[in-house]
Amino acid sequence: MASGFTMEPAKRLPLTAKCKHYTGRHEVPWDSLKYFAQRYSIFSFYDEGIYLTDDAWFGVTPEPVACEVARCFGATNEKKRTLVDTFAGAGGNTIAFALSERWDRIIAIERDASTLACAQHNAEVYGVDPSLITWVLGDSFEYMDALVHGPERLHPDLRVDVKTSVLFASPPWGGPGYSSDEIFDLTTMQPYNLERLHGAYQTMDHGLFLPRTSDIRQIAQLAPSGRKIFVVQYCMRGASKAMVAYIPAKTSASVDEGSTLFAVETATRTVQRAKLAHGQSKMPRAWAYSTWQTPMPFFFCHCARTRLGRFDLFSKSLRCVGSVDYGLLTTAFKWANRRWEYDLRRLVVGTAAMAREKKKNSESKRAKKAEKAAKQASKGDKKAKTKAARVDGSDAEDVDLDEVLEEYRRQQEQFLKVTETVCPGPPRPRAASTLLAAPHDSNSLLLFGGEYFNGSLAQFYGDLHLYNIARHEWRCVTSPNSPLPRSGHAWTRASNPSHVYLFGGEFSSPKQGTFHHYSDFWRLEPATREWSKIDVKGKDKSPSARSGHRMTYWKHYILLFGGFQDTSNQTKYLADLWIFDTVNYAWHCPTLPQAQLKPDARSSFTLLPCDQGAVLFGGYSRVKATVALKKRGAKAQGQAQKNVLLPKVHDDCFSLRMALPAPDAGPGAPPTVRWERRKKPANAPNPSRAGATMTWHKGRGILFGGVHDVEQSEDGMDSEFFNQLFAWNVERNRFMPLGLRKPRQQRKNAPEQRAGRRGRGQANEEELLRQLAALETGASLDDADGIELENKLEEPQEDEQPAREMPVTMEPPHVRFNAQLAVQDDVLYIYGGTFEKGDREFTFDDLYAIDLSKLDGCKEIFSRAVEDWVESDDEDDEDDDDDDEDEDEDEDEEDEDETEQQHAPSKRKKKDEAGSDTSSGAPLSAAWDEDETETAASSVDDGLPHPRPFESRRDFFVRTSAEWQEVLMTSLRWKGVQPERLAVKEIKAKAFELSEEKWWDSREEIMALEEEQEAAGIQEVVSLAERGDAATAGGARRR
């Protein structure tokens, strides 16, 4: 090279003709079809533009396996901060290492230029920091030779300290022929055998990614004196994919077992224990581990080391997610048995895991076994039903998401036109769906999508339902062109015309092992029920695939913000803003100044429209924090620390200020936007809560439900759920609680006083009739005003159906989170939601209605019992583990080497692996203190007419109509509009809108006054000064 170095960092290489992104099976070579069907397991972001060469399909590591390998590498000594990936390939492992945020530097080496170009491109797709990875185009063996014998030949950016670095190698295996060998001979592996690989890498701690059937005895011979080699089997969907041998460097000093470099077992926690016995001689203990962190079915870990010329096998960990496949575990142990010639006599998993052979003949032992057998018999029916419910879905994870979605498309094409079918009842229960007040009809609600998880399998929905409020009727809409099944999507209506826009969402396999995020954009015409897909071609011309985002509208624009992208390695939260122009059909992603304050990345937040643009409140994300590792027996001083992601519930508030583009900016110019941080809303719900959904209504947000994690432990967290109602006044940035109250006995006002003697006579006649009716019914004269007279002039409509009686309660719906809310005609509708109890998650199947103007009760439109939860194998045996607790304690006392009893399962499983304490140096509290809470001014101080207690919207306008018309005309004149040009009817209509806005803006304050006056016995306030006609009548009689 011109620079004098034999190896330098590679520049950003362009994609070549060998770099391909296949979009359909018809484009894929026949020998790669098998791998193309698994593309979402290989790269979950495949649809975002992943490129591979034809040869790379055979060597890329599946993403779940790569992420688990990265996590195991993360358990290395904290002093190791540099990682060298000698066979980068298309970037699968390199990207997983980078996203783990464990390494300060990563050097990725690949000898093929096209493959390296794919890896660089794929890392950009996953959003990897380009400064973290140094790409090298060259041979890894030449690199290692230069690093050890002549570092000066390397570019300074490629020189590393072997003592503070680790190496990962995923060499080619010479084709799929290894799979037919029961035990694969690593000395015959092509093009690089085990001896050459280890000879080149032995100066560094390294991990070798090898075929799953590799001969462990050959690997064990590489162990340095007094050191261990960890061999880990990584499996997906019940089948082993590969193994990794974690080999210490030969130059490393001897260390004790507790500080082994690759402490793979530290990433797991014990929940079950199993023991292997063999005749007179016993194997070291085998342990069963469980986790809910990643979609890895399990991995089988062996620890082998040399000792006196023979090999001992230590079965250290067996890891599973969800249910344990006992047959597969037996197969795994038999696999070890074939290699180490152990006669595996018995494997007891689950409730009999701690049975001990040496006490099986004791009378007390037999008594305990008999008692336990009786308990098991009583539970037999329940387990049989549970297993039967899982039979149909036992292999449901082995599905190709592309084929499943294609099948949905074929089913849609069978519909020739848009049809509506009256449903016999409400739709199936579902969570993460979307509910919207129909913009074209004030008597309808729209419901789309969602998912339902019964504890075993997940089912996604792509149907559109319409609920007719007056007829209490559900209709299902089928269409030849509609969005595929999904959940976690977002939609919003447009300001004008009344269209509905939908974006994104997610879909998964039945066992949720593989996820797919959507990036499609749809428009719904509610009147005709027709869907139209909006395609915007070009990279970075539209939002990326996501879930958990929010959408709203401003003028002729659709706003989209935030969300998350779930990969097998981590959940990436987004903070990008996108604006869709409904006139020019184009997306805009405004570039904001770096110094401008803007919301952090988040999902599940509130995004409401306002006159100036939009307002954002709350949300959920996971943020990086430093935690101190818990080590048994370790001293308090000098504890190791690591970075983890901890959940955070946001309680901040932002305003998005928007302005239309200048007239000379061109037809496709985007609007100007600016984020402004607001102070904390006054009287915000306390404690802060996640999953509290909010919907827009008359310039305010209506919030319901939520969950707050009140205690976090090593095994999980207890959670507090809510069913409170709040109204958030957007303009004044203030929350007010909305409490239900019993309907107030309305005193019927006398008919409007009519001018003249005839009107007064008719009013007196009606009052006399009411008093006579009260005497006939035995009621007091004070209740005469509550008696309604028959109006013979009003004939009932022939097609009018009698209203269905619905139960009404003074309590809001059951506590829950992530309920779907919509407001139609001043009535709040609450649909579904989720509730957790223990390890179970329940999806509500109900719909409630609350009149926001009266708050006179919660009306139950329908409520069906929650469907049965299909327990996992671990849950089936939870009681069995409790039955064995006493027995386990006795056995633990006999064996000093026995580890501690497992903790009882918490009420809520952790979704973040944080079995450690948060350090004081990483506070997660919000940046704004309580004293910065915005003080809201009373709506009485704005100089506008103010409603009175017990005054309806119409009465308020009748009393203040002249004032509101004057306010309107003054406002029009300030805008340069002459009100004299408007019709009187138009002026009154606009004035009524202003008065209605004021009435809702003051609603919470007025309700508080009404409650105070009702407590004092006052139910109506009348101003005699404003009842001039009544005063005139009285004066005439006195004269």
Tally of separate helices: 21
Number of strands: 50
Strand content: 25-35%
CATH architecture group name of the domain at 1-261? 3-Layer(aba) Sandwich
Average of per-residue pLDDT values: 75
Lateral arrangement of strands in the main beta sheet: 3-2-1-4-5-7-6-11-12-10-8
Which CATH top level class of the domain at 1-261 fits? Alpha Beta
Q: How does the major sheet shape up?
A: 11 strands, mixed
From the N-terminal CA to the C-terminal CA, the straight-line distance is: 118 Å
CATH fold name of the domain at 1-261: Rossmann fold
CATH superfamily grouping of the domain at 1-261 = Vaccinia Virus protein VP39
**Global geometry:** elongated
- For the CA atoms, what is the radius of gyration? 35 Å
Structural class: alpha+beta
Low-confidence stretches: 253-360, 389-396, 748-758, 789-800, 885-938, 1027-1039
Helix content: 10-25%
Give a brief rundown of this model.
This protein has 1039 residues and is α+β, with helices and mostly antiparallel strands. Helix content is 22%, strand content 26%. Helix 4 crosses helix 5 and helix 18 crosses helix 19.
